[in-house]
Amino acid sequence: MTKERIEVIAYSGYRGEESPRIILHQGERIEVIEILGQWIEERSENRERKRFFKIKGSDGAFRKIYHDEKLMEWFHTDD
Fold this sequence. Notes:
mainly beta
């Protein structure tokens, strides 16, 4: 899995970084038009937890992004 750190403006509900609204990627501001799916992956051995989103952006592209709760960072992945 290739990953790239991105900046995300997210709606912060009671759980913190809950859902992405805007992605800042390679100097471009992309609005999240639709969240097509979301899920959580957690590893029991190190309690690493990632919150994934499959989204459609205002540029028409589909992306898979995730928030790494341990690092408190957002990433774009191409797998």
